[in-house]
Amino acid sequence: MEYCNLIKIIKQKKELNSLSDEFVLGIIKIYLKNEMPKLLENQEWLNNTKNKYFRTVVKNVRKNLREVHGAFKKKGYDKKYKLLDEIKSLNDFEGHAKILKLHTSTAERLKNYIEIYGKILEKVYKVESLLDLGAGLNPLSIPFMDFKVGTYYAVEVAEDDVEFINAYFKKFNIKGHAFVKDLTYVDNLPEVDVCFMFKLLDTLESLKKDVTKELISKVKAKWLVVSFATKSLGGRKVISKKRTSWFKKIIKAYEYDTFEVDNEYFFVVRKDL
Question: Domain 104-270 in CATH: superfamily?
């Protein structure tokens, strides 16, 4: 594989080394297509790590990967297994909260989880199967759900996150499966009642334009629950809900409702199969 050495060097940074090779390769190809298309045709630069093109690609792909993955992990993230060992049961809300606080999105969502899942349940009456795309640590919010999920599928790009979620499922005998997948390429996703896409689509669109149309079309779910940030990372800057107008155009053929909590704007879309 021509890109093996490039992928290996990009992943030498600690915060990126758990990302799947498939995902990193996808980001490399998207970057080259958008920014340096000539390098896709002539690949001699791949053989020289000191080549200016090689160094530029490494620098910018790492930057892109940090924006979509590393930026959301908080201090102490590597202690998550120790904290998992300390959780006594699915009713141990405090133990779950300690882990949810290790990821920016779930930490911000923590005080609103009960409200969020209550609002979802007002529209979605049955959740026998759930697909959580770009899940992060969100599966550990199961204790806050007002509904019982039959099967929980979680998709992530980092292998260590997938291993951790599967360890959580196993510890509490949850019927679930986490797996690695690059969501800029949509195929072979399980058929479910509900699909979560929490704060996912802006990130995917920054990597691959119009991927949302493909994702919405191909996901086999009766309901989609999609969210967008209403504040910047860290909460310093307000982000207008008007910027979701592009998404509303994509889902205009479907029935949908919206609701808002701190830092997050939700769409509940009735897709049906």
Answer: Vaccinia Virus protein VP39 (3.40.50.150)
